[in-house]
């Protein structure tokens, strides 16, 4: 049996008369349909077939970066493309040094531990002297940076999450800020195996757990039965948590014993809660005024939370907003006051449902990685500062207690990510993107990032190469066998970099003399060594490859997050300065940031429903993760297209907000603010709270360039979103902080299927 692993899951490869086809794996109780279309003709139609170069770039006019995305491409032979890329790299390194190359190249690319585009490009650039890199992720930058100051790195916590079966046994009340969206649990970076979140939630409900969803969208929770939905104004969860804390403090129901033994800094927090610090009492009335949640419901909720075994979870989206560090810090403070951290079924969670792997009982093994070697360049950016990097060379920025400068980037090299999907305020990014002298992209499809490049090199897909599949906490090693020949002239990222490396005289450093099989055996040997340390003997590579799949099994004991710390806080001290949970952090306070002080506080975001700006832009835009694809990947596949109306993404809006604007279901609507505008198809939905409009990410960026102010035609919300760091601490993405207005669009409604770019014959 052939298997293929993708971020969306394990699929079986069936050989039909007319070629291979993917079907859901029989091993998966709740498979995701997202990956099934990978081999379909509609998907293949938009493949990049041959190396291609933007016309004026090929003619040597490098200064015309503003023509990126607006000019036809000319196809060239591979040899010429490799020579051109090598000479661009050599030219830039020779004149400006390696810190003029941005190779951050953020993105999910494809599953597989060897052909992982990130690892490939970073290793190659390190072989030629280094590159400017990125730090953290769009997913959870604010949490990544703040959590080590408070409790432990996010990765450590994610690996420890109390398992779903423990929750079913012990959890009485589950409170989900932003829910546990099943749409998101379809994926795990590197490959979801057994989709278990639905059965996890349903088992909890059957065992009697009560669920409360706190958020703007009812669809963020589905437990197969009833639950309570508390609507909250987006970006105000911190105020609600502070209000809950005040209720507990006022009535003395907080757990002083836990706070003394396991935490530092509660005194500072309590002077803030009572208003002694700033004259503002953070009581239920105060929180109600900010959040829109009724004061008496806040009071009763505080009682329910302290008097039950309560698990409180935050979605990652809460920290993808201005001051996104705060809801995480506040949640941990609230959980500490209740004193249930480290108990099975109680405490806090930082991402149940964000991906499938959170809450498994599978063995914890890191898994083998393709070595990236050392980077000789020390410059970096916090990942979401890309537009600032390109447009503000020499300018300084703060990050986690230090000040750094943006280097002057002349060449951008991207493989395995789509910045014209992931970045905010795309009109500003497009202007910044015009500034470097060269943009090189490896892509599988003629998607927006390929179109915005000077040189596009066609990359193979997972199905066109052999690989080793593994994702931490999914517990399986998968032999990902090639099922199709490369499309047209597509090549593996590895082969492209190996050819470039050879041409630039670093061939052996890059390949170490190994081909694909050599590297797969090398990676497998790594896995064998890791498993041995955990007391497991894995079979030989040949046996593994024949078997197709190895199940590493479960942990000896089901995990309980911070259970060891609770049992013995000295022997299992946390990696914080005090070894305890830092409700107040002297380190963070010492940074002196107005926008991220030393303990959890309510700070108004730049844009929210309580802001003055809401008079002009009265709707809060939630641009959440799409249910029918992964980011921008496979946006043109049938499953994604079936979720659209006439090629446009669907924006959901509350009936009252729609009626006020004369909008009916299926209407073409325009969403806009001072940063941009896009079209979408309206869906009227009472599962969206009033004052909110939901437009998921992922529609391929397609601005109408004939207009002076670009109008994006497919419904890409990132032409509207705010490009500002979460705070001086983490500088994460603030995508969820965004106000807009919406109207019916009367300007015609031509269907807007995404097509191939113009490819011209070479002028001889
Ligand atoms: N408004 C808003 N914006 C957001 C978010 C949000 O919530 N709201 N979420 C953010 C988050 S959390 C994330 S993680 C980012 C995701 O942003 P990205 O990870 O950049 O998005 P993807 O569409 O997954 O891009 C992956 C690209 O890699 C290509 N690719 C796949 N496999 C290969 C390969 O083997 N080789 C090569 N060369 N290319 C390959 C795919 O074709 C695709 O173009 O988006 C962020 N943007
Ligand atoms: N199908 C699918 N699954 C995915 C992805 C995908 O692209 N497609 N992307 C993956 C990636 S890279 C990541 S990082 C994770 C992201 O995981 P998350 O960041 O958690 O995902 P989102 O869908 O952005 O947000 C979850 C829900 O939070 C709610 N929400 C937004 N803002 C607020 C707020 O201020 N307060 C409250 N209470 N709720 C709010 C929204 O209604 C939203 O539906 O998802 C992963 N899973
Ligand atoms: Mo993400």
TrEMBL record:
<keyword id="KW-0500">Molybdenum</keyword>
<dbReference type="InterPro" id="IPR006656">
    <property type="entry name" value="Mopterin_OxRdtase"/>
</dbReference>
<dbReference type="InterPro" id="IPR050612">
    <property type="entry name" value="Prok_Mopterin_Oxidored"/>
</dbReference>
<dbReference type="InterPro" id="IPR041954">
    <property type="entry name" value="CT_DMSOR/BSOR/TMAOR"/>
</dbReference>
<dbReference type="GO" id="GO:0030151">
    <property type="term" value="F:molybdenum ion binding"/>
</dbReference>
<comment type="similarity">
    <text>Belongs to the prokaryotic molybdopterin-containing oxidoreductase family.</text>
</comment>
<feature type="domain" description="Molybdopterin dinucleotide-binding">
    <location>
        <begin position="619"/>
        <end position="738"/>
    </location>
</feature>
<keyword id="KW-0479">Metal-binding</keyword>
<dbReference type="GO" id="GO:0016491">
    <property type="term" value="F:oxidoreductase activity"/>
</dbReference>
<dbReference type="InterPro" id="IPR009010">
    <property type="entry name" value="Asp_de-COase-like_dom_sf"/>
</dbReference>
<dbReference type="GO" id="GO:0030288">
    <property type="term" value="C:outer membrane-bounded periplasmic space"/>
</dbReference>
<dbReference type="GO" id="GO:0009055">
    <property type="term" value="F:electron transfer activity"/>
</dbReference>
<dbReference type="Pfam" id="PF01568">
    <property type="entry name" value="Molydop_binding"/>
</dbReference>
<dbReference type="InterPro" id="IPR006657">
    <property type="entry name" value="MoPterin_dinucl-bd_dom"/>
</dbReference>
<dbReference type="GO" id="GO:0009061">
    <property type="term" value="P:anaerobic respiration"/>
</dbReference>
<keyword id="KW-0560">Oxidoreductase</keyword>
<feature type="domain" description="Molybdopterin oxidoreductase">
    <location>
        <begin position="47"/>
        <end position="502"/>
    </location>
</feature>
<dbReference type="GO" id="GO:0043546">
    <property type="term" value="F:molybdopterin cofactor binding"/>
</dbReference>
<protein>
    <submittedName>
        <fullName>Biotin/methionine sulfoxide reductase</fullName>
    </submittedName>
</protein>
<dbReference type="Pfam" id="PF00384">
    <property type="entry name" value="Molybdopterin"/>
</dbReference>
């Amino acid at each position: 049996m052939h298997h293929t692993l993708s971020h969306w899951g394990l699929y079986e490869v069936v050989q039909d008369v007319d070629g291979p086809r993917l079907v859901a794996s029989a091993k998966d109780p709740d498979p995701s349909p997202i990956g099934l279309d990978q081999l379909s003709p509609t998907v293949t139609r938009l493949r990049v077939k041959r190396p291609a170069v933007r016309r004026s770039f090929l003619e040597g006019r490098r200064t015309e970066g503003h023509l990126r995305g607006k000019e036809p491409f000319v196809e060239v032979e591979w040899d010429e493309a490799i020579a051109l890329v090598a000479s661009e790299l050599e030219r830039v390194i020779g004149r400006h040094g390696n810190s003029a190359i941005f190779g951050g190249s953020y993105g999910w690319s494809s599953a597989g531990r060897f052909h992982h585009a990130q690892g490939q490009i970073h290793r190659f650039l390190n072989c030629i002297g280094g590159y400017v890199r990125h730090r953290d992720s769009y997913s959870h930058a604010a949490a990544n940076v703040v959590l080590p100051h408070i409790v432990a790195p996010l990765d450590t916590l994610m690996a420890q999450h109390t398992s779903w079966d423990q929750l079913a046994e012990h959890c009485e009340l589950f409170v989900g800020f932003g829910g546990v969206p099943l749409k998101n649990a379809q994926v795990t970076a590197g490959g979801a195996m057994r989709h278990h979140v639905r059965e996890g939630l349903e088992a909890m409900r059957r065992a009697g757990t009560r669920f409360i969803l706190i958020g703007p969208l009812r669809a963020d929770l589905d437990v197969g039965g009833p639950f309570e939905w508390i609507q909250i104004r987006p970006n105000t969860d911190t105020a609600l948590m502070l209000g809950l804390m005040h209720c507990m403090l006022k009535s003395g129901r907080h757990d002083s014993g836990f706070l003394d033994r396991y935490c530092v800094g509660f005194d500072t927090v309590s002077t803030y809660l009572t208003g002694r610090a700033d004259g503002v009492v953070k009581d239920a009335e105060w929180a109600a005024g900010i959040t829109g949640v009724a004061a008496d419901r806040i009071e009763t909720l505080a009682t329910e939370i302290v008097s039950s075994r309560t698990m409180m979870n935050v979605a990652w989206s809460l920290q993808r907003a201005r001051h996104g560090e705060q809801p995480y810090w506040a949640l941990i403070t609230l959980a500490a006051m209740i004193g249930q951290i480290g108990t099975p079924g109680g405490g806090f969670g930082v991402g149940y449902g964000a991906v499938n792997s959170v809450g498994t009982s599978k063995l914890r093994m890191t898994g083998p990685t393709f070595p990236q070697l050392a980077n000789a360049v020390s410059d970096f950016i916090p990942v979401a500062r890309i537009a600032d990097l390109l447009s503000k060379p020499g300018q300084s920025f703060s990050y986690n207690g230090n000040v750094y400068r943006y280097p002057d980037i002349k060449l951008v090299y991207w493989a395995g990510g789509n910045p014209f999907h992931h970045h905010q305020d795309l009109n500003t990014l497009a202007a910044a993107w015009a500034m470097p002298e060269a943009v090189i992209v490896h892509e599988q499809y003629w998607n927006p990032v390929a179109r915005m490049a000077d040189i596009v090199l066609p990359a193979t897909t997972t199905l066109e190469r052999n690989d080793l599949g593994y994702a931490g906490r999914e517990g399986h090693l998968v032999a990902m066998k090639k099922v199709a020949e490369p499309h047209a002239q597509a090549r593996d990222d590895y082969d492209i970099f190996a050819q470039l490396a050879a041409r630039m005289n670093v061939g052996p450093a890059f390949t170490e003399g190994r081909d694909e099989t050599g590297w797969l055996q090398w990676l497998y040997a790594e896995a064998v060594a890791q498993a041995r340390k955990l007391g497991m003997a894995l079979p030989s590579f040949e046996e593994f490859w024949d078997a197709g799949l190895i199940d590493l099994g479960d942990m000896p004991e089901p995990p309980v997050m911070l259970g060891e710390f609770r049992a013995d806080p000295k022997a299992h001290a946390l990696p914080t300065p005090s070894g305890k949970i830092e409700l107040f952090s002297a380190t963070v306070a010492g940074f002196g940031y107005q926008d991220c002080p030393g303990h959890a506080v309510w700070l108004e975001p730049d844009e929210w429903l309580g802001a003055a700006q809401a008079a002009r832009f009265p709707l809060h835009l939630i641009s959440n993760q799409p249910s029918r694809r992964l980011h921008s990947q496979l946006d043109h596949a049938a499953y994604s297209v079936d979720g659209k109306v006439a090629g446009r993404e669907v924006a959901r809006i509350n009936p009252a907000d729609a009626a006020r604007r004369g909008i009916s279901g299926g209407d073409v609507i325009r969403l806009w603010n001072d940063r941009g505008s896009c079209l979408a198809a309206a869906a009227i939905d009472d599962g969206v709270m009033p004052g909110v409009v939901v437009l998921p990410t992922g529609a391929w960026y397609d601005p109408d360039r004939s207009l002076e102010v670009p109008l994006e035609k497919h419904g890409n919300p990132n032409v509207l979103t705010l490009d500002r760091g979460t705070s001086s601490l983490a500088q994460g993405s603030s995508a969820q902080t965004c106000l807009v207005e919406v109207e019916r669009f009367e300007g015609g409604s031509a269907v807007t299927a995404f097509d191939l770019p113009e490819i011209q014959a070479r002028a001889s």
